[in-house]
Amino acid sequence: MALVNSKKMFEMAYKNGYAIGAFNVNNMEIVQGITEACKEENAPVILQVSKGARAYANHTYLVKLVEAAVKECPEIPIVLHLDHGPDFETCKACIDGGFTSVMIDGSHLPFEENIALTKKVVEYAHERGVTVEGELGTLAGIEDDVKVEHGAESYTKPEEVIEFVTRTGVDSLAIAIGTSHGAYKFKPEQCTRNEEGILVPPALRFDILEEVSKKLPGFPIVLHGSSSVPQDYVKMVNENGGKMPDAIGVPEEQLRKAAALSVCKINIDSDLRLAMTGTIRKFYNEHPDKFDPREYLKPARANIKEIVRHKLKNVLGCAGKADECK
Ligand code: G3H
Ligand code: 13P
Ligand code: ZN
């Protein structure tokens, strides 16, 4: 089947208590690892491209890689989504250039300006059958060239969501309930430590999610910054020349709980980066004589596939749901 927008996926995810995985793609091995897992698990999927990915790999290469995945995986619905669209022009370029969904990220703007920008993108997108994600509230962490320090983030205000959704016409809303971008989601001071010295993060603000959901019944909510930063991979990185002390993510049980509520899209990038980097570092360490990129990209791709498979089955709950999302 051809690329689809996110409408039907979110309708089914909301109704049946699961979330669609939105995985960031930057090169061929990442696209292949994700879509091979989704194909084998019969799961719908969102492949998302950031401004940084477009700058790195080029818009056309990314679209063609995703088109290749669509051809190789005709049984599963695939959305091609712009992640953190920074302005109208970028959203327009993606809509005109084959994307089926875009995010316009006006979360850093004053409320009225966020509404005006989001509405403009929605009008352009909807005329062309493309779905739009907006955002209220800001996450800590790094996204593209913007770094929001811990402490400077702001939770979504539930009293703003009805007005935002009604006046903009967005199809989904990203909210801030304590997740953050990157591999250092919580400062050590915000956490406790378990007996092995591993940081235990504070809980997400499910009270805010519940208030938002009460105000927007049936409306799909999106969670950014939802990597869990698997400690096995952090260890693999650190044992093979890397330095990622106190890297920490969102516990998977909390994401599973969110997926069973109104959260229909869960964004995961850092976990795939960690799987890829850990695997390649280990390979270099164990095979200092090797220099054929295929030899280290192959296990990296296989481990991306395994981690995505795990997310689909055990965190998102969308394994086996491809058919109902068509
Ligand atoms: O939200 C950020 C995503 O992880 C994309 O990261 O801007 O470095 O491509 P990037
Ligand atoms: P992570 O850094 O937690 O993977 O978040 C990715 C994301 O939100 C992309 O928009
Ligand atoms: Zn994000």
Would you kindly provide a written description of the structure presented here, covering whatever features stand out?
The chain is of the alpha/beta class. The model has no long low-confidence stretch (mean pLDDT 96). The protein is built from 12 helices and 12 strands. The strands form 3 sheets. An 8-stranded parallel β-barrel has the order 1-2-3-4-5-8-11-12, surrounded by 10 helices. A two-stranded antiparallel sheet has the order 6-7. The chain has one domain: TIM Barrel, CATH 3.20.20. The protein has helices at residues 7-16, 28-41, 51-57, 59-72, 88-96, 111-126, 158-168, 206-215, 231-239, 252-260, 270-286, 293-316, and strands at residues 20-24, 45-49, 78-85, 101-104, 131-136, 141-143, 146-148, 172-175, 192-193, 199-200, 221-223, 263-268. Residues 24, 83-84, 181-182, 224-227, 267-270 line the site of 1,3-dihydroxyacetonephosphate (13P).
